[in-house]
Amino acid sequence: MESINNVLIVGGGIGGQSVAIALRQIGINVDIVEIEPKFDVYGVGIIQQANALRALDELGVADEAMNRGCPYAQVKMCTPTGHQVAEVGTPPIGRFPSHNGISRRILHEVLFERSKALGTKYQMGLTVNEIKEKEDGVDVVFSDGNIGSYDILIGADGVNSKVRSLIFGDYKPNYVGLSVWRYAFKRPKDLDTGYMYFGKKSKLGLIPMTEDTIYMFVVSAEGADNPFIKEEQMIPMLKSYMQEYPVAMVQDLIDQVVDPKLVNYRPLETLSLPAPWYKGNAIIIGDGAHATLPQLGSGAALAIEDAVVLAEEIEKQDGTSAIFSRFMARRYERCKMVVESSERIGEWELMTFKGKQLPEGVNIGAEMGKTCMALTQPI
Ligand SMILES: Cc1cc2nc3c(=O)[nH]c(=O)nc-3n(C[C@H](O)[C@H](O)[C@H](O)COP(=O)(O)OP(=O)(O)OC[C@H]3O[C@@H](n4cnc5c(N)ncnc54)[C@H](O)[C@@H]3O)c2cc1C
């Protein structure tokens, strides 16, 4: 292949839009196909640690994300009664603070506006049904029957990636026995940074999204069989978890949990695609290759970093196989470290919520600290 000029990205989420921006910045033509007919990003927030902000800066949007989100310091880890036991999270990197909390919808808008301004072409309500490898590129058949021809294809279609299954066959995400409940609130006046409370049946976090808003997450163990939670169960169950924390900041929120449709409930899964994450001229990035538990608040950060690194390697224009192989060398161990660390933390939380004793020497805060510190290393 002469050079990579024409790229198809499948999936317009955080990873897909990030790689579109990174490629447009170096003048490469980009088409995104997104399966949803229109973007409808749910309104709870997302934590962007300093390494995520550093990667967003490479895309020209870190300041916009901080202006429209809420930078904050390390997270205070507390007992259920509010006694602080540690501070966790990636330390600041250069001018980037330890954390930026932001609404998912706003992060999506920030990426979308930049990507559109740079000339990315979006096609909504579309996916790929077939991928045909060629020596010098890929041909695809889209779900509307049209065909396309590209130098490379990037699968950024999330944990249940269709591109992954078309290229590599069947890999199923691994449900770990934990679930998360999320809800957005007005910001309590005493909330000066992120907070995490560790209880016996759950873990509860309060994360700033703007000067005026926060979101809460509660991690719980609902059962090995991943039971279906009916809508009418949402509010009573979430409130009963919140009762475990007798601190004013949590208690004051309980009466504000009123709309079951605003309770965002989700079982937690991981996925590790074995290396390499590419075949021929197609490659998987983001959750489709390495979905972590949210325990380290780093999945999106990894997807954004993937985007930055892939574009840096593509810019060298020395052949797809050399580009993809260097991408793997820079990404595989780092992503594996985060997935595995999140799985360890998840396993220990599950033991706690089931009333089991943690093995001697286990310290969840120390595990988080070690992994967050490792993420400050350059990508
Ligand atoms: C409960 C929870 C909390 C989290 N909290 C954090 C956090 O605080 N900080 C953090 O950094 N990360 C967090 N994450 C992880 C983060 O959300 C993911 O790592 C990130 O969204 C991955 O981006 P992605 O682009 O790979 O996939 P996605 O964001 O899932 O995007 C995939 C896109 O592809 C589209 N798509 C799907 N299938 C197809 C198809 N067949 N064809 C075309 N398009 C398709 C989807 O509609 C979507 O737009 C959390 C995850 C969970 C589950």
UniProtKB/TrEMBL annotation:
Q: Which GO terms describe its molecular function?
A: monooxygenase activity
Organism the protein comes from: Thalassobellus suaedae
Q: Which InterPro entries match?
A: FAD-bd, FAD-dep_Monooxygenase_BioMet, FAD/NAD-bd_sf
Tree of life domain? Bacteria
Q: What is this protein called?
A: FAD-dependent monooxygenase
Coiled coil start-end = none
Q: Which NCBIfam families match?
A: PRK06847.1
- What keywords are assigned to this protein? Monooxygenase, Oxidoreductase
Does this UniProt record's set of keywords contain Oxidoreductase?
yes
FAD-binding domain segment(s): 6-314
